[in-house]
Design goal:
By secondary structure, the protein is α+β, with helices and mostly antiparallel strands. Helix content is 17%, strand content 27%.
Length: 81
């Protein structure tokens, strides 16, 4: 890890286009680091570990499109199981 004034401040990246804007950070509070993705429009957040991220690399574009909707017209996903 880096030392100095920015060592305690998490790095973040904002990625946006005309359809969505998200903030990416690395969450190191748990057992393993996770990529935290926050939708800046809805404030919904998800944290993906290395296993889940690796799984994304094997998904086809069609498989991913079935799960992507940056502007859902229904209730946000159920996070309780």
């Amino acid at each position: 890890m880096a030392n100095g004034p920015s060592a305690n401040k998490p790095q973040e990246w904002i990625i946006s286009n005309e359809f969505a804007q998200v903030r990416l950070t690395i969450d190191t509070l748990g057992n393993d680091p996770r990529l935290k993705i926050e939708d800046l429009t809805t404030n919904l957040t998800i944290a993906l570990d290395a296993f889940m991220l690796a799984g994304l690399t094997t998904a086809s574009e069609e498989e991913l499109k079935r799960h992507m909707d940056p502007n859902p017209k229904r209730q946000p996903r159920d996070t309780n199981g």
